[in-house]
Amino acid sequence: FVFSLIPIVFAFGAYEPKEGDLYFQSLPRNAVIDAIEGASESPYSHCGILVRKGGEWFVLEAIGPVREISLAKWIKQARDRHYDVFRLGEKHERHIPEFIKAARKYLGRPYDIRYRMDDEKIYCSELIFKGYRDATGEQLGKLVKFGDLKWERHVSIIIAIEGSIPVNRIMITPRHLSEAKQLEKVFSSKEKIRKKR
Prior knowledge:
- The chain is of the alpha+beta class.
- Helix content is 30%, strand content 21%.
- The chain has seven helices and nine strands.
- It has helices at 2-11, 31-39, 71-76, 96-104, 124-136, 155-162, 174-178, and strands at residues 22-25, 46-53, 56-62, 66-70, 83-88, 144-145, 170-171, 183-188, 193-194.
- The strands form two sheets. Strands 4-3-2-1-5-8-9 form a seven-stranded antiparallel beta sheet. The protein has a two-stranded antiparallel sheet with strand order 6-7.
- Strand 8 and strand 9 (193-194) form a beta hairpin.
- The longest helix is centred in the middle third of the chain and has 13 residues, at 124-136.
């Protein structure tokens, strides 16, 4: 199903993939995913960068070790196979090659379940944020303080992971990344947004 879906979606001009597009999805529910989405009041719990490799589309992501996974498999891992696509605006497109190159420097880094902004371990929105920052010197999206999020209903899983509530931790969530002023939403598998540029 997934492999046949992709050409159909792309073939009719609904959305033409472009290297550097940012893909957002919700992963299957568990306590950690519910905490990510609930605390950040977000439809997204995961994101990655569309890259081209060997003539095929892959998504550069941090879900375990930072890796590149085929686009078809990336869509398949989403809850209900739903995903949204955001694209850098025209005046920011020139940064895409360096953006991807900078993000690829984190390949192989382990996943950061504690969502810290150091370089030892990397989480999904951090990978994108740091790739763009390293390439441009600019911030993509809004950094937030964990204590300002709606974390109260997820105390048990936070304590299990962290041992305490890291109220002062600065982070970049998938939601706050998707709201970056440099981005525009160009496709949604659910809303059938059809926009070409």
